[in-house]
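Team,

Forwarding the record for the chain on the shared tracking sheet. I've put the sequence and predicted structure together so nobody has to dig through attachments.
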Amino acid sequence: MPWLCRSECINISLSMEIIRVKPSNINELLTMSRKTFDESFGHLNKPENMDFYMDKAFTVEKLFSELLNPFTEFYFLKINAVHIGYLKLNTHQAQSDLNDNLSLEIERIYIDSKFQGSGFGAALIDQAKKRCKDLRLSYLWLGVWEKNKDAIRFYQRHKFEIFSSHPFIFGDEVQTDLLMRCNLDD
């Protein structure tokens, strides 16, 4: 099956796998987190704000504590044994905002820039929907930067609707995240 990547067309058989991240994968998670966050937002923000945020959010200590949190789950998306993306899900008190026991938060969903637009993000959304159903929760929700129009359209294609917003402190700026929700009974 051919897959179209931004840089080239690859016409080989790809083996896709979504696996739970373990504490022993901390260095791979750290590398993937920093790389994909920088690819997604580095060109849109001041370098000092990027550095400040990444040095707070993406450290071995911070990620390790999140991996050990019983209300947080991380998943790698692998293609032919290479990590190309990841997903972070939160329930209960691990949620960044709502803390609704009927919901599952997608806090992070990132795909390596070389593979964006190839359908792999949809695989992570499907994983989140599956976990939400497995946990017998009613809906998924997430926050997305209001200036990230491509991501907003992506989520809308996957039945997420804007229901609110909240401020997101990013270095010396206050940005606005749109809150989007996807009901699983739809």
